């Protein structure tokens, strides 16, 4: 870290979705974001991955990207924080619910309504491979979940709304992503990002913190509304990304890691943020 940067009092913290944001939607490649990633690493700026993937799936990306920061998995239902990363006074009150409890509620509602759907645990590794195109090892990692259950939805949209409503009555949430519904407890990316911001404030008391988040999907909107700067990456979906926030919004023109790089370079070059350590 150079001297000028280390004298700044402005710490940047980056929260990023993976699929369709830092990772290309189709190839899962992130190389196009390398210029911005190198600056982030050189300045020791925290980059927190916030994904629907599992901890096991995120491990590979943490290693590739050489990250030593927390990762948020399963849409906020699971998290890994490196040892001694935050002071002990930082606490996390997760609304996560154990996977076994989710499966119980799911089975009850499915049986009572004869919904046409298959949860990950019903599909098994072979079924997950068929439904997703993942390799066997990838399917095993995708199935290593602690607090969420993906459900392959084979019924109508109306029936999906009914299913979601019945889960809400039970205090559970459904997040829609592609062909899968993700069943989880009352938590989400936004709730976890807010708690992490509080934890960073305890880690660096008296420092000015600026947060930026990047995402491409409807399940990122809560997180995007939570940070000082929101980067809306163009997504490969039909949903309008309507963000209700007073905060600054950047909308790069390119999807995936190209847009990610473009927006982060703009943020990184205009102010002398650093990471704090
Ligand atoms: Mg995404």
**How does the overall form come out from the CA principal axes?**
globular
Count structural domains. 2
The DSSP helix count reads 10
The major beta sheet can be summarized as: 7 strands, mixed
Secondary structure category = alpha/beta
Strand order of the largest sheet: 4-3-2-1-9-10-11
Estimated share of beta-strand residues: 15-25%
End-to-end distance, in Å?
9 Å
CATH superfamily placement of the largest domain: HAD superfamily/HAD-like
Mean pLDDT: 90
CATH topology of the largest domain: Rossmann fold
**E-strand count:** 11
Q: Quick one: CATH class of the largest domain?
A: Alpha Beta
**Could you say what the CATH architecture of the largest domain is?**
3-Layer(aba) Sandwich
Following the backbone from N to C, one meets helices and strands in this order, namely HEHEHEEHEHHEHEEHEHEEH
Spans where pLDDT lies below 50 across 5 or more residues: 1-7
Explained architecture:
The protein has 277 residues and is an alpha/beta fold. It has 10 helices and 11 strands. It folds into 2 domains: 3-94 and 188-270, 3-Layer(aba) Sandwich (Rossmann fold), CATH 3.40.50.1000; 99-184, Threonyl-tRNA Synthetase, Chain A, domain 2. It has helices spanning 3-6, 34-42, 55-64, 99-113, 120-132, 136-142, 157-169, 189-203, 221-226, 256-270; strands spanning 10-16, 47-50, 71-73, 78-80, 117-119, 148-153, 173-177, 180-184, 208-215, 229-232, 248-250. The strands form 2 sheets. It has a 7-stranded mixed sheet, with helices on both faces. Strand 7 and strand 8 (180-184) form a beta hairpin. The radius of gyration is 19 Å and the shape is globular. Mean pLDDT is 90; it is low at 1-7. Bound molecules: magnesium ion (MG). Magnesium ion (MG) is lined by residues 17, 19-21, 216-217.
């Amino acid at each position: 870290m150079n001297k000028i940067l280390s004298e700044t009092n402005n710490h940047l913290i980056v929260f990023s979705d993976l699929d369709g944001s830092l990772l290309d939607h189709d190839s899962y490649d992130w190389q196009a974001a390398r210029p911005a990633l190198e600056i982030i690493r050189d300045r020791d700026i925290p980059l927190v991955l916030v994904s629907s993937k599992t901890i096991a799936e995120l491990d590979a990306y943490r290693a590739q990207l050489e990250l030593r920061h927390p990762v948020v998995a399963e849409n906020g239902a699971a998290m890994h924080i490196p040892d001694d990363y935050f002071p002990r006074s930082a606490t996390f009150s997760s609304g996560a619910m154990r996977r076994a409890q989710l499966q119980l509620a799911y089975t009850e509602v499915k049986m009572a309504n004869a919904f046409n759907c298959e949860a990950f645990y019903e599909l098994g590794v072979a079924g997950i491979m068929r439904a997703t195109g993942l390799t066997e090892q990838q399917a095993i990692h995708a199935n290593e979940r602690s607090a969420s259950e993906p459900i392959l939805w084979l019924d109508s949209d109306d029936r999906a709304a009914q299913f979601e409503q019945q889960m809400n009555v039970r205090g559970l949430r459904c997040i829609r992503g592609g062909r899968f519904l993700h069943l989880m407890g009352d938590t989400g990316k936004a709730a976890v990002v807010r708690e992490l911001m509080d934890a960073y404030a305890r880690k660096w008391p008296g420092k000015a913190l600026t947060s930026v988040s990047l995402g491409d999907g409807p399940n990122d909107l809560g997180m995007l509304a939570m940070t000082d700067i929101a980067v809306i990456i163009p997504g490969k979906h039909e949903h309008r990304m309507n963000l209700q926030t007073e905060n600054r919004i950047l909308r790069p023109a390119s999807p995936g890691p190209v847009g990610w790089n473009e927006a982060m370079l703009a943020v990184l070059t205009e102010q002398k943020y650093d990471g704090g350590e």
